Amino acid sequence: MPKELLAVGPREPALLEYEERPLKKGEIRIRSIFSAEKHGTTLLLYRGEAPFLNKYYDQERMLFLNRADEKSYFPFPLGNMTVGIVEEVSPEARRFKVGDRVYGYLPIRETHTVYEQNVMPAPEGVSDEELVCVDPAVVALMAVREGHVRLGDKVAIFGMGAIGLLTLQMCKISGSLCVIAVEPVEKKRSLAEKFGADYVIDPTSEDAGTRIRELTNWKGVDVSLEISGSCQALHQAIRATRYGGKVIPVSWYHGEAKSLYLGEEFHFNRITLLSGARVESEPYREHPLWNRERVYATVTELFIRKKISVEGIIDPVVKFSQVVEAYRKMDEQPWECVKLGVTYS
């Protein structure tokens, strides 16, 4: 029987068997060939640190409200995006045929039975590694556009995971004169240098806000993009930003903001703090010019034109049979991992 990767409890990954069911009208069956995880968002859920553990988001009121019960969201599937080959098609399905390469928001699982409109055709010339990075790339594009990063700007990016590294590249092709990367993990700092960061800062060895001010003749950067998910990093991003500049918190934060001091530089330097980069929250600030469809189409075009690269970002890549151990390591030893990739035999 085929298997899938599930979180059966907080920090408890497991490979469990499941049964294939017959296809329904309009469905297709996909055999996985490559998957990747989304570290920031999914790890919060995996660790049991997401607000959904005891709250829910009320769509009508647009508020997080306390749950009346203690219902757990475990177990749930792990994994973010998957590339696969169509191996079965229902008679009513018309979009794909057997043998087509497709991709979409599919978990780490050997096969997927989905309605054909829930996946996308894999463009020719775009690799499996690029396709599973479409999700971090759309977040990166949203961050750059929300920050209005423009020709001549100086930018600081906090966090060099997949989203941060793609954001760095997009800032460079947008015309940023100076891009400063802030990242505590050596492996990720090396990738930031490879992708063109003008300066790379280790926040564990020096004060990032002060160092960025120093590198910009004590003016600060025009835009800071905080992608690490750390409230301490968000405070340093505010400190690093020039008078009247913008800070874009891209991350999904959790817990209390004990390291965020809004009575300091945020208050005195007239900083604009702009929540953004959530692709699902529509309409966008640039509506009607930009919508979700255009964001995805733009990212796909950037990959087709080879304007952005994922070389070195999918690291490590493990076999499906090794994914439980790799997932634990990704959580417990994050300095060894950039973005987890999974192959299938």
How does this model look, in words?
- This protein is 26% helix and 27% strand.
- Strands 3, 7, 8, 9, 10, 17 and 18 form a seven-stranded mixed beta sheet that branches. A six-stranded parallel beta sheet has the order 13-12-11-14-15-16, with helices on both faces. Strands 2-1-6 form a three-stranded antiparallel beta sheet, covered by helices on one side.
- The mean pLDDT is 95.
- The protein has 345 residues and is of the alpha/beta class.
- α3 packs across α4, α3 crosses α9 and α6 runs parallel beside α7.
- It is built from ten helices and 18 strands.
- The chain folds into two domains: 160 residues, Quinone Oxidoreductase, Chain A, domain 1, CATH 3.90.180.10; 139 residues, Rossmann fold, CATH 3.40.50.720.
Count, helices: 10
CATH architectural arrangement of the largest domain:
Alpha-Beta Complex
For the terminal residues, how far apart are their CA atoms?
Answer: 14 Å
Largest sheet: 7 strands, mixed
Q: Provide the structure class.
A: alpha/beta
Number of domains: 2
Share of helical residues: 25-40%
The beta-strand count equals 18
